[in-house]
Amino acid sequence: WEVYDVDVCGGHAAGGEYHHHSSSACLFEVAGDNGTDKSSIIGYAADGYPLVGPYVSNGVKAQSCWKKRDYSSVSGIGACAVANERTCQMVDQYDPSLGTTTTGVTQGL
Fold it and tell me: Residue 30 gets which letter from DSSP?
């Protein structure tokens, strides 16, 4: 995150560009996205991927695919060698079955 004041819509200007770091109710209001239909494209990321609002259909919000890692375990998918320390990273962030590798950096929880 950048250290700047944000406006009432959660956005701010930096480097000559106005932008948001998270979803904004103000932006969805301006875009007419009130949850009665699939959300439209509200912008594009720097890599060209479209940014859309939260709705996949009338009244149905998209669900995140992120899963929280269990750092308290030393065995299982995503586990590190030392319990309760972030001493490893995923070999492949898209395939947890490939396991982890030690980072050499200890970060407590």
Answer: H
Q: Name every residue whose Cβ is closer than 8 Å to that of residue 38 and which is 6 or more positions away in sequence.
A: 55, 56, 57, 58
- Name the residue among 17, 66, 69 with its Cα closest to residue 44: 17
Closest-CA residue to 69 (of 34, 104, 99): 99
pLDDT tens sequence across 31-44: 889 899 999 888 88
Confirm if 83 and 74 have CB atoms less than 8 A apart: yes
Q: Can you give 50-78 as a three-state secondary structure string?
A: EEECCEEECCEECCCCCCCCCCCCCCCCC
pLDDT-derived band at 55, boundaries 50, 70, 90:
very high
Q: Which helix (H) or strand (E) holds 38?
A: none
Task: Give the predicted TM-score (pTM) of the model.
Answer: 0.53
The pLDDT mean for the chain works out to 83
